[in-house]
Write a structure and sequence with these properties.
This protein is α/β, with parallel strands linked by helices. Helices cover 48% and strands 13% of the residues. The longest helix is centred in the middle third of the chain and has 20 residues.
Length: 239
């Protein structure tokens, strides 16, 4: 019989700047451990898509926040092939375009939006813990504001160049000078924008720091797995 201490679902929170690898690692970690996955960034991207399609001025924070009462976001928690929805409409591919990536920073610094998103994200993490399914969540402030109760909190960091190369390969399939120039604003400008509303380069108390600049994907994954308490990794990993 499973002991009482293991009945709650394992929760892991991963934070880090754009391009630090948190999405990739969160999905692989959830798959390895056999628990759910929550991409909080996809929630902001989905709202960005809705706002752009509605012709809302992204600089008008109250107008953007006015979309929230009718915004019905949902996602499956499958880390291998996650799908995201606004109402009944699947937006998985639509929210990964360069246009959305360039516009989402304005949504991400909207404090009215952030408060709403935090509430939604906290609820999903708490439910995964309570029902025993477990979840890995990644995104800005997930380790501090959203869910500081997580069993493991990790801050992934990397040099700006390493992050630009990753984002360029993700969007364009290469890290040529031309591709790096296209993503520079997404990384450098996003850092400057996010720093106005959150601290994401220095870990707070109880948060583990992992520098991914010189690590490949497997190296980062193993580094994070090594941070798990032995009883947690053993209780939740796939057989």
């Amino acid at each position: 019989m499973e002991s009482t201490s293991h009945r709650h679902g394992l929760t892991i929170a991963i934070d880090g700047p754009a391009g630090s690898g948190k999405s990739t690692i969160a999905k692989l970690l959830a798959e390895r451990l056999g628990i759910g996955y929550l991409d909080t960034g996809a929630m902001y991207r989905s709202l960005t898509l809705v706002a752009l399609e509605a012709g809302v001025d992204l600089d008008d924070q109250e107008a953007v926040a006015g979309l929230l009462p009718n915004l019905h976001l949902s996602a499956d928690s499958n880390p291998v092939n996650p799908h995201f929805y606004v109402g009944q409409r699947e937006v998985t591919s639509l929210i990964r375009t360069p246009q959305i990536a360039e516009a989402v920073p304005k949504i991400a610094v909207n404090l009215l939006v952030r408060a709403w998103m935090v509430e939604q994200q906290r609820r999903r993490m708490a439910e995964a813990s309570a029902d025993g399914s477990g979840m890995v969540a990644e995104g800005r402030d997930i380790t501090t504001v959203v869910y500081p109760e997580a069993d493991l909190r990790v801050l992934l960091v990397a040099s700006p160049l390493a992050r630009m190369k990753r984002r360029a390969r993700e969007l364009f399939g290469d890290d040529s000078a031309e591709s790096l120039a296209k993503v520079r604003a997404q990384i450098v400008d996003r850092d400057a924008s996010d720093s106005k509303v959150s601290e994401f380069l220095t870990p707070g108390p109880g948060i583990e720091l992992v520098d991914t600049s010189e690590l490949d994907i497997e190296g980062v994954l193993e580094a994070v797995l090594a941070l798990l308490p032995a009883e947690s990794s053993g209780a939740h990993s796939r057989m």
